[in-house]
Amino acid sequence: MRVRLAVAVFSALLLPCFGAFAPARGETVSYQAGGETVRAYLGNFPGSRNSPGIVVIHDYWGLNDQIRGIVDRLTRLGYVVLAPDLFKGQLVTDPGLAQDMRRALDEERAVTIVKGAIDELRKLDRVNNRPVATIGFGMGGRVSLATALRGADVQATVVFYGSVATTREDVAPLKAPIMGVFGGGDRAVPEKDVTSFEAALKEAGKDAKIVSYPGLGHCFMDETRSDYEAEEAKDAWIQMRNWLAVKLEPKLPGRPAAGAPAGTEPAPRPTPP
Predict the structure, then answer these.
(1) Residue at 201 is within a domain
(2) What is the pTM of this model?
(3) Given CB 3.0 to 4.6 Å as the disulfide criterion, which of 31, 190, 192, 218 pairs with 120?
């Protein structure tokens, strides 16, 4: 069993080294999608007109402080980031209720909301050609993939332990590069499905990167959950950061070039509201 206290202390010591690119400025905003008003958390900073955009899609816990922290981290890397609230303000802590919320989610509605978020990022500063990626966790990972499969204009798709497509025909509609990150011990997304997903992407000739951590369970990127694994979460974050730097091709002063030294980017603990 890992010593959580030691990890937390180590992470706290490294925090000043993280995210020096730009001060994050998060705010609650709203936009229209599919005939409804969607609330979202926006991470932006002065001079972001030439910055790529990212839509972050929350897991079945809702748009909580942990997801807002992800938005802030990405903003400090130089991205304009928008995280829509698929649950209309409802936050979930009970695992059983979280599963109920996941099952009740209308995937078509969720995809419409994410497509609206993509459009909203391009409306900011009227940057119609802003490259945009989607990043989703768990339930949001599935929505991230579904959004790409349904023809969204995205330049990169990231799926963290979301349910996947498993045949060449299923992944055929993908146009943008895709990165998937999974835990080998995740019962929600079995390893055999991840293997089939990777094989289908390869057979279909897609630009794909699949990362799997042996033995890890679900939600290992979420520092508020019992499945959290600090070392693997840090490694996955760095791999994603460098992959996005290549796929979105940002030209931002002070941003680490693809393949540059990884540095230290521990996941900060959420700040109490």
Answers:
(1) yes
(2) 0.84
(3) 31
Residue at 214 is within a domain? yes
Does some domain include residue 263?
Answer: no
* CATH number where 173 lies: 3.40.50.1820
Report helix, strand or coil for 269.
coil
Contact 194, 163 (CB under 8 A): no
The total domain count for the chain is: 1
Distances (CA, A) of 244 to 78, 85, 133, 229: 12, 23, 8, 22
Q: 10 Å Cβ neighbour count for 133? A: 28
Which residues of the chain register pLDDT less than 50? 1-23, 251-273
Two tokens, residue 179: 């990165």
Find out whether 81 and 58 touch, Cβ atoms under 8 Å.
no
* pLDDT reported for residue 207: 98
Question: Helices in the chain by DSSP H: which ranges?
Answer: 4-14, 65-76, 95-104, 107-123, 139-149, 168-171, 191-203, 230-247
Give the pLDDT of residue 266.
37
Judge contact between 58 and 67, C-beta under 8 A.
yes
251, two tokens: 């030209």
> In this structure, which amino acid lies at residue 161?
Y
First to last CA, the chain: 30
Q: Classify residue 29: in a domain, yes or no.
A: yes
Containing structural domain, residue 143: 22-247
